[in-house]
Amino acid sequence: MIALFRHCLLACAATALTIHVAYGEPEPTALVDQQHCMFCHTRDAPFLAPSFQQIAEHYRNAPNAQTMLEHKLRLGGKAHWGDTPMPPAVERGGPLSAEEAHTLVQWVLSQ
Ligand code: HEC
Predict the structure, then answer these.
(1) pLDDT (mean) for 15-28
(2) Where is the signal peptide (predicted)?
(3) 27: left (phi over 0), alpha (psi -120 to 50) or beta
Protein backbone atom coordinates (compact mmCIF):
# COMPACT_ATOMS: atom_id res chain seq x y z
CA MET A 1 0.00 0.00 0.00
CA ILE A 2 2.76 2.40 0.93
CA ALA A 3 4.65 1.43 -2.20
CA LEU A 4 1.58 2.21 -4.29
CA PHE A 5 1.24 5.60 -2.65
CA ARG A 6 4.87 6.40 -3.33
CA HIS A 7 4.49 5.37 -6.92
CA CYS A 8 1.56 7.75 -7.36
CA LEU A 9 3.48 10.56 -5.71
CA LEU A 10 6.37 10.09 -8.12
CA ALA A 11 4.15 9.79 -11.16
CA CYS A 12 2.20 12.91 -10.27
CA ALA A 13 5.36 14.90 -9.65
CA ALA A 14 6.72 13.78 -13.00
CA THR A 15 3.52 14.82 -14.77
CA ALA A 16 3.58 18.26 -13.17
CA LEU A 17 7.19 18.65 -14.23
CA THR A 18 6.42 17.73 -17.84
CA ILE A 19 3.58 20.25 -18.06
CA HIS A 20 5.78 22.92 -16.57
CA VAL A 21 8.56 22.33 -19.07
CA ALA A 22 6.22 22.09 -22.06
CA TYR A 23 4.26 25.27 -21.37
CA GLY A 24 6.64 27.47 -19.42
CA GLU A 25 5.14 29.38 -16.50
CA PRO A 26 1.75 28.12 -15.28
CA GLU A 27 -1.13 30.20 -16.60
CA PRO A 28 -2.49 32.72 -14.05
CA THR A 29 -6.01 31.72 -15.11
CA ALA A 30 -8.04 33.98 -12.80
CA LEU A 31 -6.19 37.06 -14.02
CA VAL A 32 -6.32 35.97 -17.63
CA ASP A 33 -10.09 35.50 -17.39
CA GLN A 34 -10.70 38.73 -15.52
CA GLN A 35 -8.68 40.67 -18.09
CA HIS A 36 -10.04 38.80 -21.12
CA CYS A 37 -6.55 38.22 -22.52
CA MET A 38 -7.74 35.31 -24.64
CA PHE A 39 -10.47 37.43 -26.19
CA CYS A 40 -7.81 39.01 -28.41
CA HIS A 41 -4.73 36.80 -27.98
CA THR A 42 -4.05 33.09 -28.41
CA ARG A 43 -0.97 31.22 -27.37
CA ASP A 44 0.31 30.34 -30.81
CA ALA A 45 -1.76 31.93 -33.59
CA PRO A 46 -2.05 35.67 -34.36
CA PHE A 47 -5.69 36.71 -34.09
CA LEU A 48 -6.90 40.21 -33.13
CA ALA A 49 -3.49 40.64 -31.55
CA PRO A 50 -0.04 39.05 -31.87
CA SER A 51 0.16 35.56 -30.30
CA PHE A 52 1.87 35.20 -26.95
CA GLN A 53 4.54 33.07 -28.62
CA GLN A 54 5.29 35.85 -31.11
CA ILE A 55 5.53 38.34 -28.27
CA ALA A 56 7.82 36.08 -26.23
CA GLU A 57 10.02 35.52 -29.28
CA HIS A 58 10.12 39.23 -30.11
CA TYR A 59 11.29 40.25 -26.63
CA ARG A 60 13.52 37.27 -25.84
CA ASN A 61 16.72 39.31 -25.97
CA ALA A 62 15.31 42.64 -24.84
CA PRO A 63 16.56 43.31 -21.31
CA ASN A 64 13.91 45.91 -20.37
CA ALA A 65 10.95 44.08 -21.88
CA GLN A 66 9.55 42.84 -18.57
CA THR A 67 9.27 46.35 -17.07
CA MET A 68 8.09 47.98 -20.27
CA LEU A 69 5.37 45.38 -20.84
CA GLU A 70 4.17 45.48 -17.21
CA HIS A 71 3.70 49.22 -17.56
CA LYS A 72 1.93 48.81 -20.87
CA LEU A 73 -0.34 46.09 -19.51
CA ARG A 74 -1.46 48.30 -16.66
CA LEU A 75 -1.75 51.68 -18.33
CA GLY A 76 -1.69 51.04 -22.07
CA GLY A 77 0.69 52.66 -24.49
CA LYS A 78 1.38 53.15 -28.15
CA ALA A 79 1.12 50.26 -30.58
CA HIS A 80 4.27 48.23 -31.31
CA TRP A 81 2.79 45.66 -33.68
CA GLY A 82 0.30 47.45 -35.87
CA ASP A 83 -2.12 50.32 -35.74
CA THR A 84 -4.30 49.02 -32.91
CA PRO A 85 -2.98 49.63 -29.40
CA MET A 86 -4.00 47.27 -26.59
CA PRO A 87 -6.62 48.84 -24.33
CA PRO A 88 -5.42 49.64 -20.76
CA ALA A 89 -6.37 47.33 -17.86
CA VAL A 90 -9.35 49.38 -16.66
CA GLU A 91 -10.98 48.96 -20.06
CA ARG A 92 -10.24 45.24 -20.15
CA GLY A 93 -11.78 44.25 -16.84
CA GLY A 94 -10.40 46.29 -13.96
CA PRO A 95 -7.24 47.85 -12.59
CA LEU A 96 -4.16 45.65 -12.42
CA SER A 97 -1.65 45.81 -9.57
CA ALA A 98 2.07 45.90 -10.26
CA GLU A 99 2.31 42.38 -8.88
CA GLU A 100 -0.46 41.07 -11.14
CA ALA A 101 1.09 42.71 -14.19
CA HIS A 102 4.42 41.12 -13.26
CA THR A 103 2.84 37.66 -13.07
CA LEU A 104 1.09 38.10 -16.41
CA VAL A 105 4.13 39.38 -18.29
CA GLN A 106 6.32 36.64 -16.84
CA TRP A 107 3.80 34.10 -18.09
CA VAL A 108 3.53 35.66 -21.57
CA LEU A 109 7.30 35.85 -21.98
CA SER A 110 7.64 32.18 -21.02
CA GLN A 111 5.42 31.00 -23.90
C1 HEC B 1 -9.14 44.07 -26.61
C2 HEC B 1 -8.13 43.16 -27.14
C3 HEC B 1 -6.97 42.78 -26.19
C4 HEC B 1 -7.05 42.25 -24.93
C5 HEC B 1 -8.28 41.93 -24.12
C6 HEC B 1 -5.68 42.01 -24.52
N7 HEC B 1 -4.80 42.40 -25.50
FE8 HEC B 1 -2.78 42.30 -25.42
N9 HEC B 1 -2.67 43.22 -27.22
C10 HEC B 1 -3.76 43.58 -28.01
C11 HEC B 1 -3.29 44.24 -29.23
C12 HEC B 1 -4.17 44.78 -30.36
C13 HEC B 1 -1.88 44.23 -29.13
C14 HEC B 1 -0.88 44.81 -30.12
C15 HEC B 1 -0.59 46.22 -29.66
C16 HEC B 1 0.64 46.78 -30.27
O17 HEC B 1 0.70 46.89 -31.51
O18 HEC B 1 1.55 47.14 -29.51
C19 HEC B 1 -1.53 43.60 -27.86
C20 HEC B 1 -0.23 43.46 -27.38
C21 HEC B 1 0.12 42.79 -26.23
C22 HEC B 1 1.48 42.62 -25.75
C23 HEC B 1 2.74 43.15 -26.44
C24 HEC B 1 2.83 44.65 -26.22
C25 HEC B 1 4.00 45.28 -26.90
O26 HEC B 1 4.25 46.48 -26.64
O27 HEC B 1 4.69 44.62 -27.70
C28 HEC B 1 1.41 41.91 -24.59
C29 HEC B 1 2.57 41.47 -23.69
C30 HEC B 1 0.01 41.64 -24.35
N31 HEC B 1 -0.74 42.20 -25.35
C32 HEC B 1 -0.47 40.92 -23.28
C33 HEC B 1 -1.82 40.84 -22.94
C34 HEC B 1 -2.29 40.23 -21.72
C35 HEC B 1 -1.44 39.52 -20.70
C36 HEC B 1 -3.64 40.42 -21.70
C37 HEC B 1 -4.59 40.08 -20.57
C38 HEC B 1 -4.19 40.66 -19.28
C39 HEC B 1 -4.01 41.11 -22.94
N40 HEC B 1 -2.88 41.35 -23.65
C41 HEC B 1 -5.31 41.45 -23.30
C42 HEC B 1 -5.09 43.37 -27.73
C43 HEC B 1 -5.57 42.88 -26.53
Answers:
(1) 65
(2) 1-24
(3) beta
CA distance 52 to 37: 10
**Closest protein CA for atom 10 of ligand 1:** 86
Residue 38 Cα to ligand 1 midpoint, Å, equals 10
Contact 87, 77 (CB under 8 A): no
| Ligand 1 pocket residue status of 55, Cβ below 6 Å | yes
Q: What's the average model confidence in pLDDT over 54-83?
A: 95
**pLDDT value, residue 94:** 94
Span between the terminal Cα atoms of the chain, in Å: 40
The residue whose CB lies within 8 Å of the most ligand 1 atoms, and thus the one to mutate among 32, 40, 86, is: 86
- pTM attached to this predicted model: 0.83
For domain 27-109, which CATH number applies: 2.60.40.1940, 1.10.20.10, 1.10.150.120, 1.10.760.10? Answer: 1.10.760.10
